[in-house]
Structures are given as structure tokens and as C-alpha cells.
Amino acid sequence: MDAGEAAVPLASLVVTDCASRRCLARPYPHEMTIPSLRRQAELLATTPNAIVATIQPDGLPQLTPNWFLWTGESFWISTAERAVKTRNLRRDRRIVLCIDDVDSGDYVQVTGIASLREGDDAREPTLELCRKYMPAAQVLPHWESLVADGPRVIIDVHPERFQWHDR
Predict the structure, then answer these.
(1) Which of 13, 39, 121, 126 meets the CB 3.0–4.6 Å disulfide criterion with 78?
(2) Which DSSP category does 119 fall into?
(3) 8 Å CB contact between 95 and 53
(4) How far is it, in rounded angstroms, from Cα 128 to Cα 136?
């Protein structure tokens, strides 16, 4: 545990409600800590994938690992316009992300509402997202390979709640 972090008393988990900026205690099976702001930023900047959950027409979740970029206000995920998750979000904008650090066991679950950026509006956010994962010289060729397979969209996730888990 880093300095400034306190153990959450009596096996509870703090859930940050983004709309009201208040914390709610929820039961959790073992004592945990909430990561420092520094650790939260590090996790969001360095973790490669978010597991993206959307809702299928039959109500079951549809899950996929995706690259993501946290902008400080929203999460950007680039995907094909024809992807199942895109179709699901056109019908139901609710979305959940799980971003986990396999080595440490830390993770965050993000619940929110998604909007889609389409057409020319998807290009620049996708390029910025790719810069997280590859050298600048590879970004444009990667973009060209993506759009060769069809149009792209940006899933813009507006968080309503973060649930942080720190081991």
C-alpha cells in the first residue's frame, strides 16, 4: 500500500458515482484499498486492453478486448462500423468497461453511456488512440490498413461510475 492510501474498513469497496462525485460503500468479500490518483492514472495510461461489454438483442452481454484511450473525460475505443458492438450500441447505449492489470491484480470497472463518432469524426481520435500503442511513424499506415477493411467508428464512453479494485 502506498503512502496516502488507507485500507477500506471492514471489507467494503468505494464506488465513485461520477454524476454526483460522491462515494458509496458497498460490501466486498475482503479488505481492499482504493488506488492513489497516481496509480489510477498509471493504470489507465499503461493497460493495453479494456474488456468492452455491450448488450445483445437477447439481453446477454457481448464482450470483446479492445485498445482504448482515456482522455481525462471519456474513453475512446476504435472499432469497425460493422462490428457487433457497434450495432448493439446503436440500439442500447449502455456500456461497461473492465480494465485490469494482470500483474498486480488491480482493475477498474467503468459503467457509462456511449456515443458513436462516425465518418470523418472517427479519424483523428483513432490516430490519437493508436499513438498510445505504436511509434508515430506506424500510426498512419495502421490507420490505412484499418479503413481498407471498411469504415471505422469511435465509441466515446462517458463514465457514470468507476469501481476501483486495488489488491
Answers:
(1) 126
(2) G
(3) yes
(4) 10
- Can you give the CATH number for the domain in which 134 is found? 2.30.110.10
Residues with Cβ < 8 Å from 166, sequence gap 6 or more?
A: 5, 32, 33, 34, 35, 39, 106
- Residues 58/88, Cβ–Cβ less than 8 Å: no
Per-residue pLDDT tens for 54-82?
Answer: 999 999 999 999 999 999 999 999 999 99
Chain-centroid distance of CA 13 in Å reads 19
**Residue 47 contacts residue 113 (beta carbons within 8 Å):** no
137-166: pLDDT as tens digits: 999 999 999 999 999 999 999 999 999 988
CB atoms closer than 10 angstroms to residue 52? 26
- In which domain, by residue range, is 89 found? 48-97+109-160
The tally of domains found in the chain comes to 1
DSSP 8-state class, residue 8? P
